[in-house]
Write a structure and sequence with these properties.
Distance between the termini: 46 Å
Oligomer: single chain
Shape: elongated
Radius of gyration: 20 Å
Helix content: 25-40%
Order of helices and strands: EHHEHEHHEHEHEHEHEHEEHEHEH
Low-confidence stretches: none
Mean pLDDT: 90
Strand order of the largest sheet: 8-7-6-11-9-12-10
Structural class: alpha/beta
Largest sheet: 7 strands, parallel
Length: 273
């Protein structure tokens, strides 16, 4: 490993940690050059387990001979930027309590057909913008037996820093892909691809004509895609209208709905059993 003791924050190697936007990190123009940031030893270890390539590490000095020793042994000859806590705290967004960041190469994009091969239950996220919700949904999907996650073109990047952190690294273990890259590809073309793969589609929406989430027809579907919509507005009306089923989670005490991440966990538990 190459330990680089920081005396100031001018080193260009620190750009990925503080001076590049999420869009710049993704490097859509040159996807092969894209990176993402993983936080905490546990999440970084999960990324390494998935075969992802580390580019550099940033950590407080005390972690080098402490909790990050195992990571350093796995990362090979990459730069390890370190310094005193007061200096690193000056980096924009460096508010960690777990002390370790790792810049990693983004994995090659996969197609929906690739990630859905052999699957029975998939989650489809439409335009969910909040990275915390995306990370939480992916974690629930991994924990509760969903086989893959698909995202509309307008959905938050699952490899943005917060989504990775909230997912607790499950984003590296659960297959995911985008259903198209432009807004024109959703919902029409995206739903057509799901049907071509043999999926029945169930929109989670609050409608009077919807089925309860434990309806036998939903459980009996050989392949089922569960669609969840953006915060606040939910799924688009045209998306709901185009789905095979509309499903609802019964509410009590005048509550009209759940947060999308909570609703996803309930639906996954019910429909993957």
């Amino acid at each position: 490993m190459r330990i680089i003791e920081l005396q100031n924050l001018d080193d260009p190697g620190l750009d990925v940690y503080a001076r590049l936007t999420e869009a710049q990190l993704r490097s859509r123009v040159e996807p092969a050059r894209g990176v993402f940031i993983a936080e905490s030893p546990k999440v970084i270890a999960s990324a390494l387990d998935a075969g992802l390539q580390p580019v550099s590490l940033l950590m407080e000095r005390r972690w080098i001979e402490g909790g990050a020793r195992g990571l350093l042994a796995r990362c090979g000859d990459i730069p390890v930027y370190t310094g005193e806590r007061a200096l690193l705290a000056q980096l924009t967004g460096y508010t960690l309590t777990r002390g370790v960041l790792c810049a990693m190469r983004r994995p090659a994009p996969r197609t929906p057909e690739e990630v859905c091969a052999g699957t029975r239950r998939v989650a489809v996220l439409e335009d969910i913008a909040d990275s915390t919700n995306v990370g939480a949904i992916i974690r629930s999907a991994a924990a509760l037996g969903v086989d893959a996650v698909l995202l509309s073109p307008g959905c938050c990047d699952p490899l943005c820093r917060r989504a990775v952190r909230v997912s607790m690294g499950t984003v590296f273990a659960l297959p995911w892909a985008r259903l198209g890259e432009t807004a024109a590809g959703w919902p029409g073309a995206g739903l057509d691809r799901l049907r071509a793969m043999g999926f029945a589609t169930a929109a989670l929406a609050l409608r009077d004509d919807s089925l309860p989430i434990d309806a036998p027809a939903l459980r009996a579907a050989p392949r089922l895609a569960m669609l969840l919509g953006t915060e606040g507005d939910g799924l688009r009306p045209e998306t709901v209208a185009a789905c095979d089923y509309t499903a609802r989670i019964p509410m009590h005490r005048g509550v009209d709905s759940l947060n999308v991440a909570a609703a996803a966990a309930v639906a996954f538990w019910e429909l993957t059993r």
